[in-house]
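Standup notes
- DV: blocked on the single-chain target, sequence here:
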Amino acid sequence: MSESLTVGVLGLQGDIEEHRAAVQNALARESLEGGTILVKDVEDLRKVSALIIPGGESTVMGGLSSIKGMMPALRESINSGLPTLGTCAGMVMLAKKTYDRVVRETNQPLIGALDVVVERNAFGRQKDSFEARLDLDIPGGDDFNAVFIRAPTIKMTGSGVKELGRFEDNVVAVQQGNIVATSFHPELSGSSLVHAYLISLAKSRRNH
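- DV (later): unblocked, structure below
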């Protein structure tokens, strides 16, 4: 009997369907059964083998997570080893500390599981969006097409955080154990490589 994995996408706000499609492509590529669900409450969170926190508006997602009473459960699940991918705003939500390039302190609700300091909107606003080729330190990650939209960047990392990728002098992808975070939108890259890496973390956790 083949393995079946359920990957949850935090479904409160943001760039959701593209992530679901990338997960399905990654599962198919690895010949794995499974699928995706939208995680909208604590009960949904209990059903998943891995979690994606998508891009969108980090302040809105954090606020809705708090209103729905999900923030403690998200924090506990991720700190307990749930493989988690945070992209763009999702990376902001995972961080221990964040500030905005323009307005500085944001005082927004954060999960705080990833030991980094993140600067929001580090590359400018929507009109400053761009694509760049990166070498990511994951299997097959050479010459990855990264899409940056109102992207944050990582300004400081704790000792347990591994750098996975840079754009110029900016750290734009990291891993801390079960947590992977990117400044860019891998679901818009035309590749399911980053999602396949998340699935590999979920498989590894299940097998140990």
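- Follow-up: The chain has one domain: 4-206.
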